[in-house]
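ok posting inputs for the magnesium ion job
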Amino acid sequence: MKVNWDEFEDADAFLDEVKIGWHQRGDGFFGPSGEAAAVWAEVFAVYASSAVSGGVPDGSTGTLLRTSELRVDWTAALVEEIRRSLARLVSPFQDHDGLHAEFRILLDLPSAFGVASGFVEPSDEFSDPPYRLDASISPNGAARIQLGGTELQSSARQVTLANSDGALPLRCGPFELRLSVWNRDAGSLKELADGSETVKSLRSTLDDIAGISVYRDGFKVLPYGERGDDWLGLDLRRVQSPTRRVSNNQVVGYVSISRDHNPELLDQTNREGFVETDAVGDLRSAVRQLLAILENERYASRPRRTRKQRGGLLDRVDLTELRDAIAEAIPRDERIKAIVTDLQRELDERDERVGEVLARYHRLATLGQLVDRVIHELGQPLAAIRQASTLAAEDLDAWDPKELNDVGESMAKSLRKRVNVILKQVGVAGDVVRRIAPLGSRRRGRPLEYEIEEAIRDAVELLSDEAKKVGAKIVLPDTRTMVTIDGAELQEVLVNLLTNSLHWLKRVDRSERVIAFEVERNSDGSVALTIEDSGPGVPESDREMIFEPYFTTREDGVGLGLSIAGEIVTDYYGGELELLPPGPLGGARFRATMRRRVGSG
Ligand SMILES: Nc1ncnc2c1ncn2[C@@H]1O[C@H](COP(=O)(O)OP(=O)(O)OP(=O)(O)O)[C@@H](O)[C@H]1O
Ligand SMILES: [Mg+2]
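and the output
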């Protein structure tokens, strides 16, 4: 086939008028002693010594592209660019199994570009990442993970990934994943730069190579991971949590799949990526879950900015020393003295303005957190209200007035139950609002005397649909502990803890999903409420952070549940919410100790 690019340049011609010449050649050309084989042999002979791992291909299949009669001269920069974009086509997994080893790209250039000639290897720029994760994911979602990099201690772990509906197994099938994350701040890049590179040039190289690519049997599936393609929605996700999450332009990642093992990942006919199916949703979700693990490790390992450093930003820039030095060196020059004085005044003014702007942002940030909290805590009661009133309406619709005498009593009972739920949840919702209005001064709900075990049963009842879906066995306490506390407040604590357990239980086998509650009155009168699950538990590295607002390892999490629950236990009951070492169920075990308002009467 022969393409003359000049003809594409003719502005008057339509695309279908451009002629592309091709003709078919037979065995004589392509056969073992044909012309094509001779070309391959000649090329391979030259580059045999630069052969990449896996050896030189035999040349029996392949595509040869030759360019001649150039209109623009190649420059070193252009060669570099073409080499880099070709490198993106080569799967970095080729050393992994023999499978992909046959796909090679060979660049045969005029001698002036000698060093760039040879087999194109996957990009080795940025080959030593500060944070790196390698994972091998089996069809049932079990992931073997290896963490490492120059900034992370290397470690291995196993997790089970849930699919995008939170169930098992993954519909996308097994895959391999490699992720590297880079810091883009000037300080980190400066450390990477060698002589010829600048922070700016490194950033632009990173822009070029960043993205998460997908290879099927060693071939790149477009457009995943092309420059600017953000198929995992990383940038959007980062908006929620900019210090913890990474953006698309600081991740270099590779996913390896195969036609045989991932039959559900089908290409669109226009080669614009996969057909959107559940399988693709699962792949996205699984890669995001794995990235979240790396992000959390990175977050935990990065030095936090301390308050002192932040104060330093607003320290006045003081020019006194400079003024004194000038006064000593050139005592008579009033002009320079005046300039320095003006400069000092100007700096002071700006300093003040920066302070004002920061204070304004700080207020906004606080407000933002408040809004997040309201949304977080109102969601549950509103869902319960919606459900109870829908069911009540259905009950009413099914109610034939003529049969009133027969079914009236049971109808009334069932309606009464639903209305009770509605009233209670309206109370919870109202309480959330009351607590933050007027801003800051929290007013409490009215404490009632009742059994804490009843509050637990209520919370379990409220989430019974979800519990049924998950198939969790819930063990209720057999104690009876009278307290005088506000039920709505306690319910928020319980619902947050229970929601978490229900979520994480999905990571273990359905037959093993258990949640157990326990209530105990201590000798000092305080009450300890324990909830334990048989889920995966909290990894050692996260233990310190889970109570921090916005810390989350859930793909869909906000990270507010535990911080709100903890705050309620502290503020209202003078106690604390703690994560205990795993107990008999082996998963997460939380204990809320309540010291105030827990007497009976
Ligand atoms: N039962 C549990 N098992 C394992 N990990 C848990 C459990 N409960 C909490 N965690 C960990 O603590 C983190 C913080 O929990 P928290 O409830 O504060 O936020 P979240 O559940 O991630 O999001 P949301 O704001 O929607 O509640 C979770 O992301 C998870 O890593
Ligand atoms: Mg939660």
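notes: The domain at 444-594 is CATH 3.30.565.10 (Heat Shock Protein 90). Residues 496, 499-500, 561 surround magnesium ion (ligand 2) (CB under 6 Å).
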